[in-house]
Amino acid sequence: MKWITQAIGSHLKQLGAILALPFLDKKGASLSQRIARWSLHFVCVVGIVLGLAYLNIKLHLDALLLTPIPAMRQYWLPAVFLQVYALSWIAWWMFRLSSSQQPAAAYPAIFRAWNRALASLENAQIDPTNTPLFLVIGKPQGGTANFLNAGQVERAIACTSPDSEMPVQIYAGREAIYVCCEETSLLGRQADLIAQSQQETNIGSLSALRGRTAVRPTEPVCPAEFEATGSEGLSIAAVGADPVESSRTPPALPNGSLPQGAGPSLLEMQQPLPAGSQDRMQALTTLQTHLDLLGDPAPADGPTNATSASPSPTYQPALKQRLRLLQDAQEIQETNAQLKYLCSLIKQARYPYCPINGIVTLIPLAATETSAVANHAGMLIEYDLQAITDSLQIRAPRVAVICDIQNEEGGLDVLDRFPEQQRHRRLGVKFPCVPSCNASDMDRMISDGIKWLCQRMVPPLINRLFQTERSNGTSQDAASSCNRRLYHFMYSIHQRSGNLERLIRRAFLGNQQPGELLRGCYLAATGRDTVSEQGFAAGIVSQLMDMQNDVQWTDEALLHDRDCRRWSILGYVSVSMVACIAILLILL
Q: Where is this region: Disordered (predicted)?
């Protein structure tokens, strides 16, 4: 007798497993597997209904049941089973709607930081569903807070994790909410590696500088007669060569002139200078003539541009460290999982509205140092953007911000000599919202835009900042030293054009990346000091507010919405049919 009960129990377990197949259906299953599961489930349900109908007739239950509807006595057992079956599906759907898609304990630090932010938003009476929300990936050297300070962002609340890791930072005001992913994005991890490698590089940079023989600080970049103009001209001497790349500073020829065919003509881009003394105008005109020769010198003995020059031995360990993250597949997978989990929390809090209104990528200027580092950073940004798109199922406008320009030699002088009112504007190129029919032209448009920014926008602006000792009352040595640093900054941005273009194209035009979502590429100073180390970020924030409505759902989201509508219509029709049948049975 025992083996009979065991056999019956095992068969009932198998039958229950078959009935539970739709509830245990996984997203990773193929289409053929899903069809097989549903077919087997349907066959089992039909078999159970027919079996119960046979038992209802065989056991003569119609004679035992006292129901007001005589027709229901013959199908009592099948009707009870179908009711239990329908209630099971309703309970399952209600459980799916009320439960979270991600377990709260998956990443406790992120979960606690997000809940703390929601509580702070509620206390400040800021509705997260109606307030524009921007996702910020990456960070400057001093942290994302410096960028928001430079952008003059109103921050009614600032929610950061109290521990040392700080995986998520949320800054919110009446106008917008900024969710900063410093530790939950690959670009943020890469920024930490770049900052750490820069510290290691600076230790040996002094000895590397002294060992350089290509260019000395005493060797003039401009001709000797230009330096000898005295008080009526400018003395521009070449700075020491960068220990990272030997081509960062243009080498001087034996006669003191620059190589021929060295870059775009600045005379074509020259803008009217402010009214000043005739001596200053003459000096700037002479300087303009020599700056026309800036570019990528390519001597016959070998290439010297930034993309092909080999790093110095001092820089090789730091270069390996900057390229380490892409080789760690486990860290990439873990960071992407954290970012997707954060996006799922944002999606639940913003339901049923769009999860985000835009994405800001904060890219350190040091990420454009070499072509290898630029490609590396571009791929990491692509992974971050793909993870955000897959999780949120939305295509939001994106802005690329090249941060920490104040750390480049001459960057502080640019901020110091730039008019204060002009420092609140954008410094970069804005891309239009291109329709899908012109998406094929995005590659060329972005390439031309980056070249225009680095080669035709920045040089004329810096050229207007050159001064003589007569213009501001400073000594000739101080003016020459400052002009030399400005010259180095201008040439550095010009040389980074190719690497920056490579980074932007790899990040925003990579595999399955909609390039038309890139709305701009800008330079920004994001230091700690709000007076002397910050600039050109306020205009970027204002542009974010202007493009907050340029969002669209992905094809997967639209397909899911159509499926939900189809099932809703089917449910309404089924309920209506059941109600009609019940009414007819009662009337009969």
A: 242-271, 293-315
Q: For 473-525, how does the pLDDT look when each residue is reduced to its tens digit (9 = 90+)?
A: 567 778 888 889 999 999 999 999 999 999 999 999 876 566 668 999 999 99
pLDDT for the residue numbered 112: 87
Report the C-alpha gap between 400 and 380 in whole angstroms: 14
The DSSP 8-state label assigned to residue 100 in this structure reads -
Q: How many domains does the chain have?
A: 2
Q: What is this structure's pTM?
A: 0.68
CB atoms within 10 A of CB 287: 20
Spatial CA neighbour of 189 closest among 333, 312, 316: 333
Residues 565 and 544 in one domain: no
In the chain, which residues have pLDDT < 50? 102, 162-164, 206-207, 209-210, 212-310, 314
Burial class of residue 539, CB neighbours in 10 A (0-12, 13-18, 19+): buried
Q: Which pair of structure tokens corresponds to residue 449?
A: 């835009």
One-letter amino acid at 411 equals G
Kindly list the distances between the CA atom of residue 42 and the CA atoms of 36, 46, 272, 357, in Å, as whole numbers in the listed order. 10, 6, 80, 44
Length of the chain: 588
Statement to judge: residues 431 and 575 lie in one domain: no
Angle, in degrees to the nearest 10, between helices 371-392 and 186-210? 170
The answer for residues whose C-beta is within 8 angstroms of residue 370's C-beta and 6 or more apart is 244, 245, 306, 307, 311, 319, 499
Structural domain boundaries, residue 125:
108-202+316-553
